[in-house]
Amino acid sequence: MTIRSTGGRVAAFAWLAFAALNIADLVFGFTGDPEHSPTTYLIAALLLLGCGIAYTVGLRPAIVGDDDALTVRNPLRDTRAPWGAVRSIEGREAVVVRFTGPDGDQLRTRAWVHQTSPRAQAKAEARARKQDARLGAQIKGRTPAKFAAERLNEMRDRQRPKTRSGAPDKAAAARDAEDVRGSVSWSIPAIAALAVPGVAVVVCAILAFVS
Q1: Domain regions of the chain by residue span
Q2: How far is 109 from 97, CA to CA, in rounded Å?
Q3: Dihedral over Cα of 77, 83, 85, 88: its sign
Q4: What region, left, alpha or beta, does residue 157 occupy, with left being phi > 0 and alpha being psi -120 to 50 degrees?
């Protein structure tokens, strides 16, 4: 299961296309004679920095659930928690995962995907109440974050040890949470996507200023 922001991805791809066309124009001069100057390089570096932001903010963030673990990819950091280490998954203004960290402490990560403001949350609940009579009470107050949390909790229940009756064994899951631990790490590609063009912007800005 992979959960992403459709709007963020569309905006990111739109910017990448815009940047690619503009850089091609700077290099080949489709709309005029190409000009190779520090100012041109600065503009190209700014466009590349925008691509780095589009990647880290629009394309990278995701919530991924597989047979082994739950992974939350935020712009610069990755959180991976085996299902046995996951304590709870909640969804309201955002999907919040509580899990056992590397040191055995309970950690909390908030997913970038499907974040909403309290005002947007209130509007979603108002719309759900209006639809309640027609579609049923089960959708009341449901936001994208809440719906994502419900799906992830269903997957988590399927991964839990089962009792003889076939129901999830919460006691066994609690024991697993003490033994299995998650991890939090920085994303090197995301940092590089921002740092490399960022340094290029600074260098080109200095060259443009002194030229």
Answers
A1: 2-60+188-210, 62-186
A2: 5
A3: positive
A4: alpha
pLDDT tens per residue across span 154-189 = 999 888 766 555 555 665 555 555 568 999 999 999
Q: What percent of the chain has pLDDT over 70?
A: 79
Q: Could you report how far apart the first and last alpha carbons of the chain are, in Å?
A: 53
Question: Residues near 127 by Cβ (< 8 Å), separated by ≥ 6?
Answer: none
Predicted confidence band of residue 142 (pLDDT cuts 50, 70, 90)? low
Of the CA atoms within 13 Å of residue 47, those in its CB half-sphere come to: 19
Q: What's phi and psi for 79, nearest 5 deg?
A: -120, 125
Confidence of residue 93 (pLDDT cuts 50, 70, 90): confident
